[in-house]
Design goal:
The protein is an alpha/beta fold. It has a single domain, classed as Rossmann fold (3-Layer(aba) Sandwich), CATH 3.40.50. The protein has 5 helices and 7 strands. Strands 1-3-4-2-5-6-7 form a 7-stranded mixed β-sheet, sandwiched between helices. A hairpin with a 3-residue loop joins strand 3 and strand 4. The radius of gyration is 16 Å and the shape is globular. The structure holds guanosine-5'-diphosphate and magnesium ion.
């Protein structure tokens, strides 16, 4: 198993629409997930940088798509969390449009999408909507079941199967930003995707 080594990781830019960065000669790997699934924590864990993506106690705070340049070779893109009820209707619609534009317009076209779900909650209706979009757009998808530490070992298999069934196949990678479980598997998968 060949792992991706994260040598450098730096914030490049936050965008809210078309931008010259989309023409940069680097592939993008998008990270998407419902608000509060631990996406910021996961980006920090994955890159091995404590504060790269601010992990915030206020869900739904990210209103832009953040580009992080990794190893001067690819962009990790952090999309706004979706499905957060506390954002007023208008703001929510804006975020929705931003996500649809990024994933659906063909202008950005990430090479793969990492879809993060909460292992202790399972796939929600928002996750079903997201996976439908990702499949329709024919993205290679990596499903990550974060907060695996919250699921007891007796429930783990059932959790993995239920998420896999709900999202239409593919085995989710159990991940925990608290224990580091799953990091090597995700690093290997991203390595493979970027090598294609
Ligand atoms: N138990 C557990 N909690 C986590 C894990 N990852 C994130 N969290 C917690 O989930 C909450 C939301 O995390 P955050 O990274 O801000 O989520 P985001 O809204 O998706 O960016 C925080 O309280 C984190 O400490 C994990 O792997 N296990
Ligand atoms: Mg966040």
């Amino acid at each position: 198993m060949s792992l991706l080594q994260i040598k450098t990781a730096e914030f490049a830019k936050g965008i809210i629409g078309t931008d010259p960065i989309l023409k940069a000669p680097f592939p993008q790997v998008a990270f998407v997930g419902r608000s509060n699934v631990g996406k910021s924590s996961l980006i920090n864990s994955f890159t091995g940088r404590k504060k790269l993506a601010q992990s915030s106690s206020q869900p739904g705070k990210t209103r832009q798509i953040n580009f992080f340049l990794i190893n001067d070779a690819f962009y990790l893109t952090d999309l706004p969390g979706y499905g957060f009820a506390k954002i007023k209707e208008k703001g929510r619609e804006k975020l929705r449009k931003l996500i649809l534009w990024y994933l659906g317009s063909g202008e950005a076209r990430p090479k793969a999408v990492v879809h993060i779900v909460d292992a202790s909650v399972g796939a929600t209706e928002f996750d079903l909507e997201m996976i439908a979009l990702l499949r329709a757009e024919r993205y290679p998808v990596v499903i990550v079941a974060n907060k695996a530490d919250k699921v007891s070992s007796t429930h783990r298999r059932a959790m993995i199967k239920s998420i896999s069934d709900a999202l239409g196949g593919g085995t989710p990678i159990p991940y925990s930003t608290k224990t580091g479980e799953g990091r090597d598997v995700l690093l290997a998968m991203i390595h493979t995707i970027l090598s294609r």
